Structure formats: C-alpha cells, structure tokens
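Late entry, evening session. Most of the bench is empty. Finally got around to the prediction I had been postponing all week. Sequence below, unchanged from the version circulated by S.P.
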Amino acid sequence: MASRARKKLIVFDFDGVIIDSFAEHKRRYDYVYRTFGRRNPAKTLKEWKKWHDSAWELNFTRVGIEGKQINVALERYWNGFAYAKSKPFKGIELVLRAISRKYALAIISNTKGSAVSKALSKFNLRKFFAVIQGGSHESGKAVRLAAVLEKCKARAADAVIIGDTPADIRAGKALGVKTLAVSYGWSTKERINAEKPDATARTPGGIPKAVEKLFSAKRS
C-alpha cells in the first residue's frame, strides 16, 4: 500500500494575524516604560505600526532600557500580561476551519507559548494547530520556524509562513519557506512590502486563496 502523502504546512504568526491584541500589548509596554520613567512613543495603532518591532528587545533599547534592565522589563511585562480583552480577527475562525481540512497548521510567536495556547483555548481555536512554538529570551523567528518545520516533518518548499511584520517575512525567506504577508496586522504596508513577500492578504478572508496560489505556483 502506498504511504499517505504528508500534508503541506501553514505556519501562522499569532499577534496581529490571528488575535487582535494591540491594546493589551500596548498596555503592558505603557506600564513597563512608566516603571523606568519612560513614555511609550506609540500612542495609537497607526503610530504602533510605524514604530513597533517584533524584535522586542529593540522596543526597550530605543527608549533607553538596556543591559540587565531588559530582563527586569520582560519580567514586569509578562507578569501582568493577559489576553482577556483581546479577540480573534473577524473571519479568522472560518479561515482556520477551512484550511485545516487540507493543510497542517502551526504557530510561531514571540509571545510565550503558554499564553498563546491559553488564548487559543479561550476562543476555541487551539484544536486547529498541531504545534505552537512560543517566545523565549531570543526574538529570532527563523530559529523557531526551523523548529516547527522539524517538529511537523515538513520541507521548507511545502510550507507557507503567514505574518504581519518584516521579521516574519525574513524568517521565511531565510529558510526557503513561501511568505504571505497580511496587511491588517501590526506593520504598515510600506514596512511589510519592503520585504517583498511572495503574496499579500488584506483581510483574513483573503488568506485561503493566497495560500492556494502560493502552493500551485512553480518555483523559478
């Protein structure tokens, strides 16, 4: 009997792609900055998209929180962090339900894996994901993406990473994974387009069609 073909893999970023958690993350940055006598340079979502970096340590060093202070800042940040007032982006559940029938799904995030899993469970979305690769004291997403590929036994050529920041697109390109940028997330169109993703989706509803096109496109 022939072996069953392995499913292709779709790897999602979490914050800004699946969950609309801007308010909670901003609340934590506001709090941590205050404890160090700093102010958050990003007061609105529009400003956040221009300023925020998914390499989270830069969000501290840019305001003068450096060295050993970063570990203190991180502890303060996560001790009070909660997704209680966040919610999934409109339409994302239907997207996950549809594409999970055909593809294996996973998540990579700079947010702690336990917090991601808890939030997914709260919104009844945990069941769609085989692997959740959460954050640590390093912000590099390429390393996490490589770990997900290994855990899912997926080839880079058979995977798509979906993200909303330059770091997501760079991680995919570094490993030869197809890249799909969403423009409804945490980066401006200019920042995300500068990384030249393989495809872009303006809304969650645009994700399935974009994924199909990426998997059907021939490599040059």
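Two things to note before I forget:
Residues 93 and 125 are 7 Å apart (CA to CA).
The chain has ten helices and eight strands.
Will write this up properly tomorrow.
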